[in-house]
Predict the structure.
Amino acid sequence: MTDHDVIVVGGGVAGLSAATFTARHDFETTVIDAGDAILRRNAHLENFPGFPAGVNARLLLAMMRDQAERSGCPVVEADVTSVEETDGEFAVETAGGDRYRSRYVVAATKNEVDYLDPVEGVGIVDRGKTFVDCDEHGRTGVDGLYAAGRLAGKPHQAVVSAGHGAEVAVTLLEDDDAPFYHDWVAPEGYFTGRDREVPPGCEEIDDEEFRRREATSLEVLRAYVSDPYPEGPRRHPSLRDAE
Ligand SMILES: Cc1cc2nc3c(=O)[nH]c(=O)nc-3n(C[C@H](O)[C@H](O)[C@H](O)COP(=O)(O)OP(=O)(O)OC[C@H]3O[C@@H](n4cnc5c(N)ncnc54)[C@H](O)[C@@H]3O)c2cc1C
């Protein structure tokens, strides 16, 4: 049994994005992912902001996972079989029998909802595929349980799911009692130069620190893009089964 602030179930773009935000705010976060993000099936991702000529979708997922891990959030490969809620705390169990205890759960599993069966009060919407009933910020009918990305009924686009993951995480932080303003890195003096405290969640960095971080980000990016990413598109499961 491990104590956590947040367990994110599902490590596609929605879950990884949500986890990066909660982990960056020092919420002990773990992503548990079964390893079959739908974006792995994309042939070449050409509408995700920041990639002028597109990107191998598997590379994007690898970079997003790395970003979550660098923010302090481990990504565990496992199938979550059940989530139970008792007295405002969640018990999350995997097929391998591992159990995690957490204050919050972010469900980001696209159309997979079976593991939520034991949670009383969570609404499931069946439109041929299943979605979790939630408000636009991902709040479900159960305190502490959020839904992110496609599972929350968002349009079937990667950037929308990633953005919604971030929105859900910020909503969770705002719903918590922890102080939070924005997740911003600002230049030195941006707040303090105007006699303002640096707000919680924000950081001011000086020029030297900016150069240091830029050098690291360039080095990390170079390592990713120096060669073609070894993994190509994954076929539809029905075609994989026929192989
Ligand atoms: C062929 C194809 C091409 C596409 N091309 C584009 C495109 O060009 N541009 C675009 O914007 N969008 C595209 N999309 C859509 C885009 O991939 C999705 O809308 C988006 O990635 C959804 O992200 P998500 O995080 O909500 O879900 P997912 O990425 O599916 O993440 C869900 C994760 O949850 C995991 N999971 C499920 N159940 C469990 C469980 N019980 N325990 C643990 N983990 C679990 C899954 O393994 C998966 O990793 C494409 C989709 C397909 C099928």
Observations:
- The first strand starts at residue 2 and ends at 9.
- The pocket of flavin-adenine dinucleotide is lined by residues 9-15, 32-39, 41-42, 45, 47, 79-80, 108-110, 112, 115, 149-150, 156-159, 161 (CB under 6 Å).
